[in-house]
UniProtKB/TrEMBL annotation:
Annotated GO MF terms: cysteine desulfurase activity
Record's keyword terms, sorted: Transferase
PANTHER family (alphabetical): SUFE-LIKE PROTEIN 2, CHLOROPLASTIC (PTHR43597:SF5), SULFUR ACCEPTOR PROTEIN CSDE (PTHR43597)
The organism's taxonomic lineage, starting at the top: Bacteria, Pseudomonadati, Pseudomonadota, Gammaproteobacteria, Enterobacterales
Gene this chain is encoded by: csdE
Taxonomic source organism: Rosenbergiella gaditana
Residue ranges constituting the Fe-S metabolism associated domain according to the UniProt record: 19-139
SUPFAM superfamilies: SufE/NifU (SSF82649)
Keyword Transferase: yes
Family: Belongs to the SufE family.
The protein's Enzyme Commission number: 2.8.1.7
Pfam families named in the record: SufE
Protein name: Cysteine desulfurase sulfur acceptor subunit CsdE
InterPro entries: Cysteine_desulfurase_CsdE, Fe-S_metab-assoc_dom
């Protein structure tokens, strides 16, 4: 069963998300925008919600599933039980979808959260969870490089 498709990284880029969030001067508005983004995230099929794909260290349960395309690009689907976490995951997804492994290894996936002031409004446990998800994405990239 292939992973579901989504608009993140293609139709909705990291810069698109940054523009949307920068138009919202207040945290509550940004929060609502993240919830709107979460509604565009695909649901990860149950078959992929396995202990191997679960990211530990998150406040809510999170799964990272991926496949490599024939061109060697990553296709990720990120899942959480929480809508706000799913919205935060959409920001990560917009930055890593379609990347080659080396590009992901070299990318700072958390920089956008700092640039947009999102990290400042998140709890320590939520920030730790985002760091764990970013590390899981980088681990996938390292594994792909090791197998090439």
């Amino acid at each position: 069963m292939p992973l579901p498709t989504h608009p993140f990284g293609t139709a909705i880029t990291a810069e698109d998300i940054a523009e949307r969030l920068q138009k919202s001067p207040h945290w509550e508005d940004r929060y609502r925008e993240l919830i709107r983004l979460s509604r565009q995230m695909p649901t990860l099929p149950q078959a992929y919600q396995t202990p191997e794909n679960e990211v530990f260290g998150c406040e809510n349960r999170v799964w990272v599933a991926y496949e490599l395309t024939a061109q060697g690009q990553f296709h990720f689907v990120l899942e959480s039980e929480s809508r706000i976490v799913k919205g935060l995951l959409s920001v990560l997804l917009s930055q890593c979808e379609g990347d080659l492994p080396q590009a992901l290894v070299d990318k700072d996936l958390l920089a956008l959260f700092n640039r947009l002031g999102l990290a400042h409004h998140l709890s320590a446990t939520r920030n730790s969870g985002l760091t764990a998800v970013a590390q899981a994405i980088k681990n996938a990239a390292h594994a792909a490089l090791d197998h090439s």
